[in-house]
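::Encoded backbone::
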Amino acid sequence: MSASPPAWGERLLGALLPADVRGDALDDLADQYELRLTRSGRGAADRWFAGQLFVFPLRIHLATLFGGPLGTPQPRRVPARRTEPRVRSALTDFRYSARSMARNPAFTAIAVLTMALGIGATAAISSVVRSVLLRPLPFPEADRIVQLQETRAERDMFEISFTYANFWDVHDQAKTLDAVGAIRWSSRNLIGGAEPMRLSVAGVTEGFFRALGVTPVAGRLFARGEDETGSDARIAVLSHSFWTTRFGADRNIVGRDIVLDGESFRVIGILPPGTPWLDAAPVFVPFVRPNAPNRDSWELPVVARLAPGVTKAAAQAELDRIASHLASTYPEAKGMGISMQGTDDWVASESLRRALWILVGAVGFLLLIACVNLANMLLARATTRSRERAMRAALGASRARIVQMAMTESLVLSVLGAAVGLALAYGAVRVFRSLDAGAIPRLADARIDGWVLLVTLAITLFTTIVTGLVPVLRAPFRDMSSALREGDRGVKGHRTGGRLRHVLVTAEVALSLMLLVGAGLLVRSFGQILGVERGFQTANRVLFDIGFPQAQSDSASERSGLALMDIVARIRARPEVTSAAVVHVTPLGGSGTGMGFGAADRPDATGKEIPWAGWRIVSNDYFKTMGVPLLSGRDFTEQDRIGKPWKVIISRRIAELLWPNENAIGRQLVLWKGQGTSEGEVIGVVGDMRDWGLTDDPTYSVYLPTYGYGMSPAHVVVHTSLSTGTLVPMVRSILGEVDATLPLSDVRTMDTLVGDSVASRRFTMLLLTALAVIALVLALAGIYGVLSYAVSQRRSEMGVRMALGASGGSVLRLVMLQGMRPVVAGLVVGIASAVALSRFMTSLLFGVTAGDWPTYTGVALLLLGAAAMSCFVPARSALRVDVTKALREE
């Protein structure tokens, strides 16, 4: 029986083992094989040997690197005279690293800044993601809270609010829900301060706060019965932020009265802080069940809490039965369904979630680029310090000791980079909060907290391992004798190390290109959004709100309407004002109710869906003020009053849909089709506007006259040459002449309104662009550093070439080709990777495809040109070699 392992296995292991310990290691393995063969037989020995094919090479490599026994013979080393305690050796390594970095301040500054950019960007983005997506909702058992929404599949409507009657039916019939609550918004004037203040006021049912599981900071919340029909409870609950800013967090406010629109409300409680819902309005009042709730106006967001022990599937099944019963009982509820949404989507929409996770991936790429850059720098430095390492080994330092020193230096650099990075992250988070226009929920709460510090610590350890081990693992430990003989002059770099540095440059270029492509796509998309035809003008337009008290009767509404028209007329009379008008829902407001519509003189096509339009109440001159062309017909006059007989102005899309190639003026338009039977005479057709969002199609729009209607608040648009700072005092003066109790609020330009409507897109674009620019700078620095090092190591070679007749151009071309080879490889890899990854950005793009070739071409040319310049500078230095000195060195 042969006592030797299989010959093929020995050959395989011989190829995998280091040459300097290969013979002893294989002899040891053969002895262990023979022992198992004698004890257990051939089968057991062969199975053990098969397992060693995977384990044994790893054990040998680790033993060779760290000097541990691991059951294998170790190469002889000069024994150390004494073994330092670990703490003392660590302190020695830290002092040595500090002195080494002090002797090379330029290297240290570049290395620390490199890591600071990577770690700081990661910490800043982590704080945003933590605040917006990962921070728990401020509700107990938040996983049992759901939001309910109506659906109308035949109208392609899947996420709409509840109608009043449908909500109360679900409220009364659902047994699987422990609490069901609704909320609706209005605005009222707060009287009692230095000047009147317009407040958003949320009316909520008693079950609203029970569904959220809220416990008040002080006082109590609404009780059962205080939202029932006939209740006249004048009570209010304050939001935490309003209580803090308006009343200085005074708990004694509970039990006192506040005056809203001239009516006193007793403050009964203070809400805890939190988003969402708890900051929905400064003041919450009871939403009382109406006597005859309608079933044709979707206005109520609804939240609910599952009853104990009830699953979401069971609750959904019950809601489906309730919806089916309502749809079969009431014509207005035909086709009704009820959908249930968990709390995961409350804080951030799907598109915002995707954008933030894309930023997380981008900052991960940036961190990798920073690590690659530092590893490249340390690798080049380790090569030039091989004589020092050889001397330490000759004096008895183990390989583990040398590795510890290298890791200590990497740790010091990473810790310094983390410290500077946290300072940068702190400033970046403040900038992020300043960029917020309210479009990104909870961004205002982003900060560098303990969670972010833990993430930073983990990143620091990761960068220490990556940047410290790469140079050590690639260092030529076995060639210590030649390093000692030749000194630093003879160290020309390790061929394998040179290849690794080129691989790292390729990785940097590829990662940078992916970030640049992502940023380029978002920039192109943002430009497409801003350049889209809006249908209205924004230059020199100012928008503000005038707060009229809630009208309690038709006569009060009429008086408010007359006062509003008086104010607008006074504004128009000023010579600096071109025109002024009123609208009840601002453009790009992102909210508002809709109506089904149709042509009274055209039969409906069987099975055809009822088209849906947004509607706005406007005064005359609204289209002139907004720069919307009146295509045919006329504008509203004071004789066109809201109500029957209806007079309406429609957008061009409606006219072309209902009466293609015909004159729409004088035709009868069915209003609120499917909900009522009102008809309105078309008196005008205007251009299309993108009312609900710049990324949406131009809306179907129906405009109704404001005369006879009191708005609360009234949104006034002014076309003027005045700045907002000059316009506001003028308007306040006019309000003082008409009614000094009317507050002026929410003053902004139309350009600001447009900017706010794309705030989340702008935020994502700016951050990804900033990350891409930093990545580009780091990549170019890496290219420059690697090529500069290569040129410095080959100065003698360049001198010999030029002494033998090589022209400067040929030497320059040689160096440039050497530097650009990994760049081109990185471009190829980066473009292929960007094509694969950019499909995840499709939902964030507008007017641009994920494979937009101009973006890819522009980014590739930018990176190629910048890399060529980074290569050209060190390549030029190769031409300044002293030929005589180079020949003397050789």
